[in-house]
Amino acid sequence: MQQRTAHAKKHVINLSKRRLSNQEYILLAKGLKFIPTPSSKNAKMSILKDYNEFARKLRCRYMFSQEKTDLHPFRSNTGYKPASTCHTLENYIDLTKLELSFLPIERNVKNNLTKGERIALRNLKNDETIVIKKADKNSNCVILDRLDYITEVTRQLNTQHYCQLDSFNMAELKIQVIEYIKSLYDQGIIDKISFKFLTNGQKLRDARLGRIYILPKIHRLETETFKQIQHDGLNELNIIPPGRPIISQCGSVTELIGHYVDYFLIPIVQNQSTYIKDTTSFINIIEKLKPMANSLLVSYDITQMFTNLPQEALLSAVERAYDSFDKSNFKVNAPPVNVLIHLLRIILENNVFEFDGKIYKQIIGTAIGAVPSPEICDILMFEIMNQIISAFQYKDKIFYHGRYRDDGFIIYDGTSDEIIDFFRLANDYNPLLKFTYEIKNDKMSFLDVDVIKGQRFTTYGILDLEIHFKETNSYLFLHRNSCHSQHVFRGFIKGEAIRQIRNTSDHNKLINNLTNFKVKLLDRGYDNAEIDDSITDALSIDRTDLLQQNKSKEKQSIPLVLITKYNPYIRKIKKRIMKHWHLLQFDEDCVQIFNTAPIVAYSKHKSIGDMLSRSKLKTLT
Prior knowledge:
The protein is 43% helix and 14% strand. It is of the alpha+beta class. The chain is globular and about 75 Å long.
């Protein structure tokens, strides 16, 4: 037990004054994504309920099979239920429902938490004196005293970026939004489907205030301090790390408007010359470049970019970019620039949220948790960076410049002093915007890769690449005993192996990294055979194929999916779904409509994180 507890402390950072029991440490070290075994009660009722929705989809597919229109970007589930279809399909639906009703309840299912761990979970859930969060930039679990958590959030809220409100009339905002959207529909600016999406009755009726939470930046702690806290299991130093603020707008009045606006802004960002979509696109760019031997590798970070960009500047930048952008390729009519800016203004000026019983409003910047925030900020930062580069005396020496959100990468054909001048210029641009940067000759980390002047660079002039592991990485992979279907674990291993293959250009380094990956997986309860099989599958794919960008494919029909929660007490669902599928192949209409087998997809039950870590601060009872 003591050995397991000591191992668990590597993943559980107790910054509270509460002394955790051994069982609590062991429980939390399973990870906040760990799903305890659910109850068998109502398991069959749940699958039958989900099957009724699947049957509705089958009937709708049959009823509307002749409609060959493109999918509308703002389509929503109407819940339409056709009365009946053809005899063959109805026969399949009834027979399959009967099959599912006879599914046996497995009896030999072992709970993946011990009695002591279940007690620990209950005790942590009922303890109102602590707050449990995932650490920023790694998966470690952090426990804070409730008062310390409130102190840190309040410290951030007592800045010029936020103001406290005495009250907020959300009902009035709902009415304003609905009336404005209706006026757009009446004028023919938006179509009927978009109108229904933006005025979704249930979502607006259930709309709530946003909420703020923070992710503790434990990587900011001094190494010795961090080790002492891990060893002692108690924060006797009374240290409160800073937190990364996240304002969740999920379920708010402006959420649907955010999705609508974002649809028209994404292509603008993708069209920027410095745009980096993801690691794959960055690798494809880097491997086509041949910089000089003495080129400098530079990375930079824009500190708290989302929080520090002025709202009026954001609106003006979006207006300029949208007004000049070619809008002919959108699947729906693009709104006039004044309409899009008005919708965006509603979002920015109503970023209202609650914390600890108080209501706040963000007045500078945009919320990290709002849907269009990344695109809004990208558009303004593209303008700002172009202005800074234009004013830079040695701009012609910038061999390459790319940016992913608030992180940038530069290859510079000049001196360190010159690039330092560039960032001095950048930091003088706006008092709220601050750039931190690194300058290196041979190796630079960016996103999840290391860019290196290695053997390939020496021989062919092409920069080498290797997967990057942050110092804060705790390797808290999904625990093998978590209640997920088997394909989830195999898919995770293969997916991570593929990421390492894609990100590493040197085969010897790749094999070394995959060996280390296997060791970490064994530590999380995975089996040798499943690890080896999944990694072998990944290695069978050529790296060149993994670096291919997703190209537009020919139109494919939407797969028919039965979505249900995974429960180990119910098995062989796919077998029951397929038992009578052949009946559809003997009907001349059905064989054309249902020419692809359905898929069974599993949603998840509540994880430890869902039970212990909420975005909204729990109210004291």
